[in-house]
Automatic annotation (TrEMBL):
SUPFAM superfamilies: Hedgehog/DD-peptidase (SSF55166)
Presence of the UniProt keyword Ribosomal protein in the record: no
Protein species of origin: Candidatus Mcinerneyibacterium aminivorans
Superkingdom of origin organism: Bacteria
Keywords attached to this entry: Membrane, Transmembrane, Transmembrane helix
Domain D-alanyl-D-alanine carboxypeptidase-like core, chain residue ranges per copy: 93-212
Regions that span the bilayer: 6-27
Higher taxonomy: Bacteria, Candidatus Macinerneyibacteriota, Candidatus Mcinerneyibacteria, Candidatus Mcinerneyibacteriales, Candidatus Mcinerneyibacteriaceae
Annotated protein name in UniProt: M15 family metallopeptidase
Molecular functions (GO terms): peptidase activity
Gene Ontology biological process terms from the UniProt entry: proteolysis
Length: 240
């Protein structure tokens, strides 16, 4: 009889603990939904798309507060064909980005948009040189608005691509508008959009990050193209 009583209390304890954890999880989910102004249907859509993602660690790595080590380098880089780069310069990207990039360039060409890649993978040391050069020319406060510190550049992942020009003029507006409307269809997301203060960087309509089709759909459809808002959300959501 005593054994049965002990067993009963153990079962009650585990049931109570389970519902406490479950209730806490629901509360956390509700807090996250309210914080990012998303609905239950949005969460279901996000969960559905996230099931197809192999490497969630990559999404955590993209957190703007996460520093990449000096030795970090993508496992395999692939050269973009020179006919697709500006001035036929050598540009390397993560091999997983290659297929979607070429598809997007060809799709743009069919609509008389001539996309040219001007930058892809950058090493930690190369980024360090760029940042120092900007600091020397201006100052650190100015530099941090226009270029990432070494270790914080999306280019070091090999998944970031700059297109055509770093100048916003009439010639490039049509190109940047096409990218804004279509890049997500190929797994790319605009990293530093206009009128979005979360990134602390200036507007860069040429800078896109390849996050994969499932994630780019989430960013486009649920977060209004705000990549950083999504990355902040997903880091909380995965860890809850």
């Amino acid at each position: 009889m005593k054994t049965k009583k002990i067993f009963f209390y153990i079962v009650v304890f585990f049931i109570f603990t389970y519902f406490r954890i479950y209730s806490f999880s629901l509360a956390e989910s509700a807090n996250i939904k309210n914080k990012y102004n998303i609905t239950k249907e949005d969460i279901l859509y996000i969960d559905k798309n996230l099931k197809n993602i192999d490497n969630r660690k990559f999404l955590k790595m993209l957190n703007f507060n996460t520093k990449l080590s000096e030795s970090y380098k993508p496992k395999m880089l692939k050269q973009v064909p020179e006919k697709y780069t500006k001035d036929e310069k050598k540009v390397l990207i993560d091999y997983k980005v290659y297929e979607d990039l070429i598809k997007m360039i060809k799709a743009a060409k069919n609509e008389d948009i001539n996309l040219k890649v001007i930058s892809g993978y950058r090493s930690y040391l190369y980024q360090k040189k760029l940042y120092k050069k900007m600091c020397d020319k201006y100052d650190a406060n100015y530099a941090k608005k226009y270029i990432a510190k070494p270790g914080y550049s999306q280019h070091q992942t090999g998944k970031a691509v700059d297109f055509n020009s770093l100048i916003i003029d009439q010639k490039n507006k049509k190109i940047f508008q096409w990218l804004k409307e279509n890049a997500y269809k190929f797994g790319f997301s605009l990293s530093y959009p206009k009128d979005k203060n979360e990134t602390s960087y200036q507007y860069e309509p040429w800078h896109y990050l390849h996050v994969g089709k499932d994630v780019s759909d989430i960013i486009h459809n649920i977060f209004g193209g705000n990549q950083k808002k999504f990355l902040l959300f997903i880091n909380e959501y995965i860890n809850q």
